[in-house]
């Protein structure tokens, strides 16, 4: 899941970000390093901000992707 700091910046710097310790640039850099570390894994998937209209859509996509990888159904 790509950080909101990369493509959804207006959501990164909200009042609910009390647990955020990085600047936008620092968050982008950490996200990039994590992607590089896991990119070769056979189950690696990238969920981009551009692929989702809302944060709720992004969470749904993450859940569906995890269930797909696990071979489970979301009850649909």
Describe this structure in words.
This protein has helices at 9-12, 24-38, 55-70. It has 76 residues and is mostly helical. The chain has one domain.
List the helices and strands and how they pair.
Layout (H helix, E strand, L loop, with lengths): L8 H4 L11 H15 L16 H16 L6
Descriptive key words:
3 helices; globular; 76 residues; mainly alpha; 46% helix
User: What gross morphology would you assign?
Assistant: globular
The ordered string of helix (H) and strand (E) elements is: HHH
Number of domains: 1
The helix content is 40-55%
Low-confidence stretches: none
Strand content: under 5%
Task: Please sum up the structure shown.
By secondary structure, the protein is an all-alpha fold.
